[in-house]
Design a protein that fits this description.
Length: 341
């Protein structure tokens, strides 16, 4: 049977301006749905695994539309609770060249932020699960959401299930001080920690020396030092950092560094022309999880994750629709973009 991966988090309604229009230009919005943990569940289902998403959405047509969106890609939504006032919304304006993309949140009072751990039967949810995944976005939503995240991580650890978290700091949701307080507690129950250089600093207080994300400069030795500190404090089994070199809003360098605390592996770097970078970190996380849960080596899992997320940059929307064949072809070195006939 295929591996079962359970993810917990928020799914949101995404309203994005057509093409590269600015908010002030747009007369309409393109509609889709997404969210960190939902994006991971979709990608893993797309790779042939049993992706299961746990959340809470309002008991109305918008909540049902979000659920339907996940179901069309094979995600199990049996344990999504219904209730609350609304589904969170975010507005996206896609940048280009030197103009950055912009995100505006309208998610206060979302159903998941008021969910109680008692609404979820983790014995049933985690039955037969091989992996549990969440992100730092969910506990940032509210104290109740943080308590729910902790309860889920504890339940998974108690059952011997591998756990992972993508640090995913969102400054519009909480302060660095609050993030460090909460995330340092949650990471006690985490086996695999995923996050970029900025997230490691803001959520856990570790900083890579001689790195400036606004200049696109990377210092791998600095990251290795951060990883060693993270290993010493939390004893993670694996630590992975996506590495983005921001040449502009349109062109980035993309690679990753992964470690077990002793050995370090830096993946191939892809120079990507960006169509939509939202969800690219989630596609790296899902690719890494896919590799590790199916028995790939640390290095191969990282290469799979980077190739999958490089492809995601070329796909509109939050979700990564790259297939296993697409990812494996790119891993073999075919980045020509030639028409496949």
């Amino acid at each position: 049977m295929s591996k079962k991966i359970v993810t917990l988090g928020e799914i949101m309604l995404r309203l994005s301006t057509p093409g590269f229009e600015r908010f002030v230009q747009a007369d309409s919005f393109d509609v889709t749905y997404g969210g960190g943990e939902a994006n991971v569940a979709v990608a893993l289902s797309n790779y042939g695994l049993n992706g299961s998403f746990v959340s809470k959405v309002p008991d109305n047509a918008i909540g049902q539309s979000a659920i339907n969106h996940l179901r069309r890609y094979g995600v199990n939504t049996d344990f999504v609770a219904r209730g609350g006032d609304r589904l969170g919304i975010y507005f996206l304006e896609t940048g280009a060249s030197m103009r950055a993309s912009q995100v505006i949140y309208d998610r206060a009072g979302a159903a998941i932020a008021d969910a109680d751990a008692g609404e979820f039967d983790f014995d049933k949810i985690l039955d037969g699960a091989d992996w549990f995944h969440t992100t730092g976005i969910t506990p940032a939503l509210s104290d109740k959401a943080a308590a729910l995240t902790e309860a889920a991580l504890k339940a998974a650890k108690a059952r011997g299930i591998t756990t992972s978290i993508d640090l995913n700091y969102r400054k519009k949701l909480w302060s660095k001080e609050k993030a460090r307080e909460v995330m340092s507690e949650l990471c006690k129950y985490v086996d695999v920690c995923i996050g970029n250089e900025e997230d490691a600093e803001t959520t856990l207080g570790f900083k890579a020396a001689d790195t400036d994300i606004t200049k696109g400069e990377l210092n791998l030795e600095g990251y290795k030092d951060v990883i060693r500190q993270m290993k010493a404090k939390f004893n993670f089994k694996y630590i992975a950092s996506s590495l983005r070199e921001s040449y502009s809003a349109s062109d980035n360098g993309w690679s990753a560094l992964v470690s077990d605390g002793t050995e370090f592996y830096h993946t191939r770097k892809y120079d990507v022309r960006i169509v939509d970078r939202v969800g690219s970190g989630d596609s790296f996380a899902s690719g890494l999880i896919y590799g590790l849960v199916t028995g790939m080596s640390m290095a191969d899992a990282a290469e799979f994750g980077v190739a999958a997320s490089a492809l995601k940059h070329t796909i509109p929307g939050d979700l990564n629709h790259a297939t296993l064949s697409d990812v494996k072809t790119l891993m073999k070195g075919d980045a020509s973009g030639r028409v496949q006939r």
